[in-house]
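Every protein is a chain of amino acids, and every chain bends into a shape of its own. Below is the pair of lines this work produces for a single protein:
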Amino acid sequence: MYMQPGTAYVYMTYGMYHCFNISSAGPGAAVLLRAIHPIENIDIMTEFRGKNCKSKSKKFKIDELGNGPSKLCMSMSIDKETSNKLDLCTSDTLWIEEDLDYDNDFKTVISSRIGIDSVGEEWAKKPLRFYILGDSSVSKRDKQAENQFLDLPKS
């Protein structure tokens, strides 16, 4: 989190699960990727995800492949050894790019963070979690935050 913006920061949680962050605006600032919406290489993601699953015969729905921070890492084969400290602006193994064909006509839900109650109410309640309204790969929906969109005119 104290690296050059655009650098991968991978850490372990509960001593067994990886989480994937991208350092951002400055020292101590990072974005935790909590979920992904798979659009290609789903067979490869399913294979990676299955390697880390207790039930080797489990069938995953597409939106279950990366609907949580550790599931995202499993499905993308992200771990500290291979992905920590990668410069996502120059790496040829893992990078972020703009999808020029992506339809950006979506609504962004802004809600409080989840899973961090131990840091105290002030930080746990800050509106620092963002997801696309209606995306099936979201790990946990905030229905109260989504209600703000009920009265909006259709675009």
